[in-house]
Structure prediction request, 355 residues.
Amino acid sequence: MGRKVVLVVFALSLLFATYSFSNAAEAEIKLKFASLFTPVHKNALVLQAFCDEVNKKTNGKVSIALHSGSTLITGPKMAAGIQTGVADIGLSHTSFSRGRFPVTEVMELPVGFPSAWISGMVSNDFYAKFTPKEWEAYHPLFFAASGPNVVQTLTKQVRTVEDMKGLKLRAVGRNGDVAKALGAVPVPLEIPDLYDSLRRGVIDGNLLASEGLKGFKLSDLIKFETASWKYSPTHAFYVIMNKKKWDSLPNDVKKVFTDLSPTYADKLGVQWNELEVEGIEAMKAQGGQLLQIPAAEDAKWAKALEPLMGEYKKEMVGKGFKEAEVDSWFKFIQERIEYWKGVEKSRKIPTAFQY
Prediction:
């Protein structure tokens, strides 16, 4: 009898130990989040808040270590690094891996995004509407976008298309096509190399969003920014998770990510808008000038960039899409831009440029 009691106690102890170990293992879901933003960049603080809230909403079950400043994976290698599991979650933009996300690259064309918040909202709408197959190897959490990548220069004022001729401007992905169409020479540089390249005069300026003037301290160097948002591309950012890692998560954890993602798409967009304003103010504080394209120049800028839309359409038809399908992307984007303009105004979200 005594031996049976001992065996029962042993079995219960083993069961309890197994249960406790299982619960402990379940409670420890450790994820790595790679981002190209530097640790002091305000967008990095929004991402950290996202990580912290996931931890809180899962009652500590999930902890996310944010690796900022391209320390774990660089921007150009982000998509591949997430797919292969170097990190579990990653933030970068499609310009760094041209051709990998060709449908989403429509967001990088100069379609007239007036602010980062609007372009980010449209990006999420676009994915929800069309769900491009190019993202099937990942689980997208949410999308974002930079503000309009406007012309920023060290010494030369740019107000006309003719002023762009021969300027060496940092521009990556389809932004490079925009720079080239306007007569400039695109130079593909990663963000960590940008400041020093400007300081040494290797390039004449950037095609970059205004937030970089403060976020990357470029206001130390940039003297002129041209308010050309109508003709400026954006960078289409993504926050994606490794597909296998996502599939392995418990349903309650998945729900937390799904519920929080739209909130942080919005927060990141609002933060980006605020940074656009702060960037321009930082440039002005150091003697820089914000220049306006004269109204008489509008037609020239539009004409110079018009072929890019046709080239993109031809490229996508070559990939098997129908012309009408590509046209529907452009139409949808324009409709959502107008919708989100109204929302942005009603919420009184700060914007760098008037529209």
Notes: Residues 5-25 have pLDDT under 50 and may be disordered.
